[in-house]
Design a protein that fits this description.
- The chain contains 7 helices and 3 strands.
- The chain is mainly alpha-helical and 158 residues long.
- The chain folds into 3 domains: 1-60, no CATH class; 62-91, no CATH class; 94-156.
- The chain has a 3-stranded antiparallel β-sheet.
- Helix 6 (94-123) runs antiparallel to helix 7.
- The chain is rod-shaped, with a radius of gyration of 31 Å.
- 6% of the residues are buried.
- It comes from Methylomarinovum tepidoasis.
Length: 158
């Protein structure tokens, strides 16, 4: 951008027309920039400085504070972003995670419950010892289930 053009004074209305954004959106994005000029008694900004502020990605967007058209566009873009994340497997649906975790823990429980039988066949251990092994396995599986439930509560927000 030439130096003259970069320093051109532009109003909020002109910036809104140039960018297609609502004036309130432009005003919020320029709130940290000091107007350098006045046009018709209204604040005006240098074009290059204003465009840099307008185009700078905002990480703290509050969609509820946006005008209706911008809020709709924001939610549509978020929906598309999430759909892309799901398609790229960067984001996994909660139902799928629950199914996979349940399958994994069912397989783990089946394997743990077979340990006393394996020990009985291979090591000729007495019934009292096998019962104690079963109690220990049951207690550990209950503790694991409790930890998993607490973790699910933290993740799910319940």
């Amino acid at each position: 951008m030439s130096n003259d053009l970069a320093k051109t004074a532009v109003s909020l209305r002109r910036l809104a027309a140039l960018t297609g954004l609502h004036r309130d959106t432009i005003r919020r994005r320029l709130e940290d920039i000091e107007p350098r000029h006045k046009l018709g008694g209204h604040p005006a900004y240098e074009l290059a400085e204003a465009l840099r502020a307008i185009c700078k990605p905002s990480s703290n967007v509050d969609p509820e504070a946006l005008p209706p058209a911008d809020r709709k566009a924001w939610y549509e873009s978020e929906l598309k972003r999430r759909q892309l994340q799901v398609n790229d497997r960067e984001l996994i649906l909660a139902a799928e995670v629950e199914r996979v975790v349940a399958t994994a823990f069912a397989a783990l429980a089946q394997g743990l419950r077979s340990i006393p039988d394996i020990i009985e066949r291979r090591c000729a251990v007495g019934p009292e010892t096998l019962e104690q092994i079963e109690r220990i396995i049951d207690a550990e599986m209950d503790a694991m289930a409790d930890r998993l439930e607490r973790l699910g509560g933290k993740v799910g927000g319940t």
